[in-house]
Amino acid sequence: MGVTLIGVPYDAASSFLRGAAEAPAKIRRVLFSPAGNLWTELDADLGAPGALDDAGDLAVPEESAAARAAITAGVREVLDRGGRPLVLGGDHAVTLPVIEGVHAVHGPVAVLHVDAHPDLYDEFEGDRFSHACPFARIMEAGLARRLVQVGIRAATGHQREQARRLGVETIDMAAWVAGARPILDAPLYVSVDLDGLDPAFAPGVSHREPGGLSVRDLIGLLHALPAPVVAADVVEYNPRRDVDGVTAVVAAKVVKELAGVMAR
Ligand code: MN
Ligand code: MN
Q1: Distance 236 CA to ligand 1 centre (A)
Q2: I need a surface site. Which of 31, 42, 133, 144 has the fewest CB within 10 A?
Q3: Cα separation of 261 and 228, whole Å?
Q4: Which residues fall inside 5 Å of ion ligand 2, going by CB?
Q5: How far is the CA of 211 from the centre of ligand 2 (A)?
Q6: pLDDT tens digits, residue range 174-204?
Q7: 212 with 153: CB under 8 angstroms?
Q8: Radius of gyration of the chain (CA)
Q9: Ligand in closest contact with the CA of 93
């Protein structure tokens, strides 16, 4: 069993706009469209038998604790069969239960997190499991050996303090433009919030933050990752905010190249 897509149509932890739950179906439609093909830029054929499996969408209830339990169980099922889950969110709150499942099988792994936002709030509008909080919970619980954040450009004072307290390594956009790049080690988990990209490339997100990564920056970062990447997620695509489906195409491209890297 190889890289396995798992759709997680869940956006009840979003603080501002719903819509990310509609993403998995839209991403799959582009990924498997006859308008393209399943060869990656690094010469992997994801259309070959067994190269890319699809576990379909999880049935995820609205209620937070029940949702997290369902997500962890769904991810565990794929991991226990020897697969490498590639989760299609959903909002970023899904990453906590996904990494709980990964931790149960692989122990604490290194995490690369691409995002405009650190998602390190202790709580957001009274919710400790908001999509603004997952990486605080992950670090407090010792679920990650390292957390390296790339693309950050909307940190608050509180989140900078949280990053220091929790030992988070940050390559913000200013550092990225100055040439800083993450030095990562495996086994690795990769979490891509599509708002890490500049909204010029990916307008279909709930929280547009100008001044971000290009699609080529992100693909180059993914291609340079060490192996193995044992699991990953691509989250926060919001079709209700998209413009002529361009962000769905970007999301599918990111998923394809990430799947190719995970297959190594
Ligand atoms: Mn995020
Ligand atoms: Mn974000």
Answers
A1: 7
A2: 42
A3: 8
A4: 115-117, 193, 195
A5: 13
A6: 999 999 999 999 999 999 999 999 999 999 9
A7: yes
A8: 16
A9: 1
